[in-house]
Structures are given as structure tokens and as C-alpha cells.
């Protein structure tokens, strides 16, 4: 596949459960980003990975949120003890390094906490 | 500090008339600038980007944007709106090789 792939595309979970969202970036893209988009809102930055450097976690809203990137490729965003306010579309993007490189976005995972 | 301001949260135009979506940015560096489009229930797609070459940038679907350093603006334009242009548009600044900073978006409505 040539694009950024996210799975699942939709996830409904009960309040208090843990969820894992997966992102497969474009091959060769060293930068990977997670964003959250709530209904009718803009994009909220969550976390950024660049190569083997320590990730920029400054956007994570609480310690219930965590993310890892294994082998510099696939990334998993984990939300523990989900709350209704976590309901949103979670978008993953990847890019080549450098100032001029644009981000390529996946289709997103729509998370609904009931 | 880096920031992006999209001056209009909603823009409504008639089909066949020009489109203007306004974006101002602030950056401590000479940034790259991007416009993305998001159609309903779709992911974000790159429309165009400015990376310090020509100040007038042409993108897909007839859109273009002009980088004006003196005004710190990067407005998006299209001569003639089409119904398929109805979507959410995001202006994005990348001040260094790392982070992207998104505006809050402009919702474009095209009236037939």
C-alpha cells in the first residue's frame, strides 16, 4: 500500500475499557504524528516520533494516553480507562524528515466511547 | 512562538464565483506553509505547499496560494468555485523540520 493505513476504521468501546489504535506509516517516512479531531473541531496534536529520537509527548491530554513506535515503523496509540470525552477521530500522519516535507494522513479511526 | 490564524471559520460562495480563504501565521523562522482539504468523513489531503521557492504556489483542483512575507499571510484562492469544493480547509505552518501547526479550519459552503 502506498498510503498511511490506520486500523480499525471504527471502534466502539465501553467507558472504562482500554483501546489500541494502530498506524502503518508510509515506508521510509521517519516522522510519525498522532492527532485527535473532535466533532466539528480542528486538529489537536497528541504525539510525534522522529526516527530513534525520544518522542514529543507534549500533546497527550492525560496519563491515560500513551503511544509507541516499534522498529521505527508501526505505531500504536493506547487509551486506558476510556472516558466519553475521548470520543473523536484519531488521525495518524507520516512524513519524510525536513522542513519541506509534507504530512500524509491516514483515513483515521473513529472512536466512540459509550 | 508559532501560530496559525484562519480568519474565517465559515465561508459561503456561489458556484462559479471566486473563493478566498484567509490565513495568517506567526513564526520565528522561515517556515514551510501548507493547505490541506478535508471532505466529509474523509482524511486530510494536501492541496499545495510553499517551501521558499516561488511565492505563488499552484495546487490541485485549480487552487493557488500566495506567500506574502511582509503580511505574514498565505491566503488560498480559486477563480471559480465548484460544488465539489465544499469541504473543510486547514492552513498549516511548519517552522522547523519537526512539528506541524494547524489552523482551526475554514468550512467552505458552495451554493448552487
Tell me what the structure shows.
The complex is a heterodimer of chains A (114) and B (112). In chain A, 0% of the residues lie in helices and 46% in strands. Chain A is an all-beta fold. In chain A, the strands form two sheets. In chain A, strands 2, 4, 5, 8, 9 and 10 form a six-stranded mixed beta sheet that branches. A four-stranded antiparallel beta sheet of chain A has the order 1-3-7-6, with no helix packed on it. In chain A, strand 4 (31-37) and strand 5 form a beta hairpin. Chain B has no helices and twelve strands. Chain B has strands spanning 3-6, 10-14, 19-21, 23-26, 32-38, 44-50, 56-58, 64-68, 73-78, 87-94, 101-102, 106-111. The A-B interface holds A 31, 33, 35, 41-43, 45, 48, 50, 56, 91, 93, 97-108 and B 31-32, 34, 36, 42-46, 49, 51-52, 90, 92, 94, 96-100, 102-105.
The separation of the N and C termini of chain B measures 41 Å
Total count of helical runs of at least 4 residues of chain A? 0
Low-confidence stretches of chain B: none
What does the main sheet of chain A amount to?
6 strands, mixed
Q: Secondary-structure element sequence of chain B?
A: EEEEEEEEEEEE
Low-pLDDT runs of 5+ residues of chain A are none
Overall SS class of chain A: mainly beta
Dominant shape of chain B: globular
- The tally of strands of chain A reads 10
Q: Terminal Cα separation of chain A, in Å?
A: 33 Å
As a whole number of angstroms, the C-alpha radius of gyration of chain B is 13 Å
Measured by DSSP, the beta-strand proportion of chain A falls in over 45%
Amino acid at each position: 500500500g502506498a498510503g498511511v493505513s490506520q486500523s480499525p476504521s471504527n471502534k466502539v468501546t465501553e467507558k472504562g475499557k482500554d483501546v489500541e489504535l494502530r498506524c502503518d506509516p508510509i515506508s521510509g517516512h521517519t516522522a510519525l504524528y498522532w492527532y485527535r479531531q473532535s466533532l466539528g473541531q480542528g486538529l489537536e496534536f497528541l504525539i510525534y516520533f522522529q526516527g530513534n529520537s525520544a518522542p514529543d509527548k507534549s500533546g497527550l491530554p492525560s496519563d491515560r494516553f500513551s503511544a509507541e513506535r516499534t522498529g521505527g515503523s508501526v505505531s500504536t496509540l493506547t487509551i486506558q480507562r476510556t472516558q466519553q470525552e475521548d470520543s473523536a477521530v484519531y488521525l495518524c500522519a507520516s512524513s519524510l524528515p525536513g522542513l519541506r516535507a509534507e504530512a500524509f494522513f491516514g483515513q483515521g479511526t473513529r472512536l466512540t466511547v459509550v | 512562538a508559532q501560530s496559525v490564524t484562519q480568519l474565517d471559520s465559515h465561508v459561503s460562495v456561489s458556484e462559479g464565483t471566486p473563493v478566498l480563504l484567509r490565513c495568517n501565521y506567526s513564526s520565528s523562522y522561515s517556515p514551510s506553509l501548507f493547505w490541506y482539504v478535508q471532505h466529509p468523513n474523509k482524511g486530510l489531503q494536501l492541496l499545495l505547499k510553499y517551501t521558499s521557492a516561488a511565492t505563488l504556489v499552484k495546487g490541485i483542483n485549480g487552487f493557488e496560494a500566495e506567500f506574502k512575507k511582509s503580511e505574514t499571510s498565505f491566503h488560498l484562492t480559486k477563480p471559480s468555485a465548484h460544488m465539489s469544493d465544499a469541504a473543510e480547509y486547514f492552513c498549516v505552518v511548519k517552522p522547523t523540520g519537526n512539528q506541524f501547526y494547524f489552523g482551526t479550519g475554514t468550512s467552505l459552503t458552495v451554493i448552487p
